[in-house]
Every structure is written in structure tokens, then in C-alpha cells.
Design goal:
Blueprint lengths: L2 E8 L5 E5 L5 E4 L2 H15 L9 E7 L7
Parallel strand pairs: 1-4
Antiparallel strand pairs: 1-2, 2-3
């Protein structure tokens, strides 16, 4: 695996959540900058062997926006 993709969404309680697609990795943080570090740490914990660890981490950030009609 050369890349792992995380779906990043706004947390209803504030901050952000990140869930890996195809892997059992989940983390959350108060800011996007903080989340990036947590995602990197989670990937390193999930893939302790550098040979099998993805080389790229892609964050797919989704923002829901509601507009009154």
C-alpha cells in the first residue's frame, strides 16, 4: 500500500473526526493542524513496520453546509 485515505468531517461537538477508508483507524482533534499530527501518529501505530506503512496520507475533508431557503 502506497497511500491511505482518511475521510475528515466536522464533529457535531466541535473539532474534526478522521476515519481511514479500508482500515480500522479513527481519530479526532480540535483543529485541522492538530488532526494531521494525530492521523500521522495513528498510521504509525497501525503500521509499525515501515516496509508496510503507507508512504502517503491523503485527507479528504468534507464540510456540510446548510442554507436556508
Amino acid at each position: 500500500m502506497t497511500e491511505i485515505i482518511f475521510l475528515v468531517e466536522d464533529d457535531p461537538d466541535g473539532g474534526y473526526t478522521a476515519r481511514a477508508i479500508g482500515e480500522s483507524i479513527f481519530t479526532q482533534a480540535d483543529s485541522l493542524e492538530e488532526l494531521k499530527g494525530y492521523v500521522r501518529d495513528a498510521v504509525h501505530c497501525h503500521f509499525p513496520d515501515e516496509q508496510t506503512r503507507p508512504k502517503l496520507i491523503r485527507l479528504h475533508v468534507v464540510h456540510d453546509e446548510v442554507i436556508a431557503s
